[in-house]
Every structure is written in C-alpha cells, then in structure tokens.
Amino acid sequence: KPPTMGEGDVDASVLWDWFNRSENFFRQKLITPENRVVSIAWGMSGVHAVRWLSANSPLLDAMSWGDYKEHMRTLFLPSDWEHAGRMDVLRLQQGSRSFVEFSLDMMGRNNLLAGTDSFFNDEALRDTMDANMDRELARECNRENVTSIASFWDWLDEVKRLDERKQQRMEEIERTLARINAKSNNNRATNTVTRPPFQPRNTGAPDGANTGSFTPMPKLTDNERALLSANGGCYKCRKFWAGHVGARCTAPAIDASKYKTLTSRD
C-alpha cells in the first residue's frame, strides 16, 4: 500500500520520512517516474496538504517527483528552514557521548538537507565532524595521523576505533580511581592517628621581607599518580603525554600557589 501521512505538525524530519517511505514504495512497486506523484500524493491527509492537492490536482499528472518535494517544503516549512538546518549541522558538538552517536546524529541531520544546495558532501561532513569532536579524541586522531586517510568511510571507521579505545582507557582510569578511593576510605576509617595538615617548608624570606617567596609542591596524590601513569605523564612537571619521565624532565620546579590538582578532565 502507498505510504500515508496524517494530521499533526510537519517539520523537515517528518517530510524527509515521508519522502523516504515514498521512494521505497516506488522501488518496491516499480512505479515509473511519470506516475510517482499521483501514486502517493493523496496519502497525505493533513488539512494544508489536502487543500493544496485539491487546488493543484490537474497538475499532479505532469509534476515530477523533484518538483513535488519542492512544493511540499514550500507549503510546510519556514522560508529559512534550509539555512537553519545547515547551522544545526555546523553547531552540533560531540560532547560526552560516543563518536558513533555523534556521527550518526550529524549524518541524520544532514540527510534532511538532501537535494538542496546546503547538503554537506562527504568532505564537508568530515571537516565538520573533525572540528566538533571531543577534544581528547581530536588529539588522539592527530597522534595517529588519521588525516592521511583519504576515504571518508575509512576515516570514520578509524575515528570510531580510536574513540572506543579512549573510552576503554577512561573507564579503566575510573575503575582504578574507584579502587584507590575505596582503599583510602578504608584506611581513614581504621586509622586512629590524625596526621597534621601539610605545611610547606618556607624557603623564602622571613616575615616582613620580600613576599615573592617560592612554595614547594605537595606530594602527588594516589589519584594523580594513577592519572599520570595512564596518560604517559611525568611525575615531576605533572603534564600528560610529556614524552619523558621525571629523571629526564628539564622543566622548572612548579610553585604550589600556581598548581591545580590533576583530574581525569585535564
């Protein structure tokens, strides 16, 4: 049976679904191009559609499928829908979700622009995904030289693989931190000795002298050590992916007053 579209609000996604189901019907029933519009047009039962069909009934026999789709967009969608749809794709960010979800979402929104000048081809879609992916995933792609992959679909598969690897690493870090925190909580619960708070050794001038004294760094916490170890970090300069270890670190000592405790988001 031909597809139908009932009452209710019609936006770009509803129209795209209607066009897609209609084209599947054409293929299944081997509908010839000249009979496509008349074979499905009266399946739209909305008030605006029925009025338009009634007024344009004599034209349906000669109307091409492309012209029909353009008329439906003009009838139902705001005049700036195409620009709004393009901006919707450009502004879409990966955020905290997986790259698979992000890429499918972007491709779905881009499909709504099919047949228009605003539709993103594979190259433009790849550039937009690359610009809006998670920051850490972008670094991973750069390290693995993913930009050298020519095919869009091969590139997409490789980025998905790197994202899954990143997710697994972050999950392992979270499990490690959870174990460390649980152990630390158990130790605190059984420890009857209260440790004094950390007091940095004053290596600067005495009271009343120059106030630009240097405050030594506190020791790394268990959480910080786990994060640095999982992300190729240096225990001295405390930077992720430093490319060296503490013994080879030439970075100057860090002033504790300018230091922020490391977290999994750094």
What does this structure look like?
The structure is a single chain. The chain contains 11 helices and no strands. It has 3 domains: 12-76; 81-166, no CATH class; 222-258, no CATH class. It has helices at 12-29, 36-40, 47-55, 57-60, 65-76, 81-90, 99-111, 122-132, 135-143, 152-190, 222-230. By secondary structure, the chain is mainly alpha-helical.
List keywords for this structure.
11 helices, 3 domains, mainly alpha, 266 residues
Question: What's the layout of helices and strands?
Answer:
Elements lengths: L11 H18 L6 H5 L6 H9 L1 H4 L4 H12 L4 H10 L8 H13 L10 H11 L2 H9 L8 H39 L31 H9 L36
Concise summary:
This protein is mainly α and 266 residues long.
Unreliable segments of 5+ consecutive residues: 203-211
Percent of residues in β-strands: under 5%
The radius of gyration is: 30 Å
Which oligomeric form is depicted? single chain
DSSP, total strands? 0
Task: Provide the structure class.
Answer: mainly alpha
Question: What is the H-and-E element order?
Answer: HHHHHHHHHHH
Please state the overall shape, judged from the principal axes of the Cα atoms: elongated
Summed up, the domain count is 3
Q: Whole-Å distance between the termini? A: 56 Å
Mean pLDDT, to the nearest integer, reads 84
Characterize the biggest β-sheet: none
- The percentage helix is 40-55%
| Count of runs of 4 or more consecutive helical residues | 11
Coiled coil: 156-183
Protein name: Retrotransposon gag domain-containing protein
Organism: Pleurotus eryngii (Boletus of the steppes)
Keywords: Coiled coil
